[in-house]
Amino acid sequence: MRVDLNKALRRAMRTGEVYIGSKRTIKALKDGKAKMVIVAKNCPEEVLEEIERYSVKKITYSGTNMELGAICGKPFSVAALAIVNEGESEILNAE
User: Max Cα separation, the chain?
Assistant: First the structure.
C-alpha cells in the first residue's frame, strides 16, 4: 500500500501527537516515545548522526526543511520531527 507522506503527516499533525524540531525529536528518541522520525533532505549532519544512534524507523523527506515546515503548517523550517502517536493517519506505513 502506497501512503502519501504529505497527507499522512498532515493527518498525524491533526489527530495524533507529533514533536517538531531537532531537539524535541532527539529527546523523544532518548525517552523512547518516538515511533518514527522524519527528517528534511537538508537536515544538519550532527542531527542525523544523533538520530542514527536509535533503532527507530526514519524517513528522509524529499523536500527541504522549509518545505517540511510548510507541510506541518508551521511558518518556520523543520529539520526533524518525531511521530509519537500517529492518530488516524497511516504514516507508520509510509516508506
Answer: 33
pLDDT value at residue 84: 98
Quote the mean pLDDT of the chain. Answer: 96
Positive or negative, the Cα torsion across 33, 51, 76, 13? Answer: negative
- Alpha-carbon span 34 to 55, nearest angstrom: 10
Q: Which domains does the chain have, with CATH numbers?
A: 5-84 (3.30.1330.30)
With 0-12 / 13-18 / 19 or more C-beta atoms within 10 angstroms meaning exposed / middle / buried, residue 55 is exposed
Q: Strand order of the sheet with strand 80-85?
A: 17-20, 80-85, 36-39, 57-60
Helix (H, G, I), strand (E, B) or coil at 69: helix
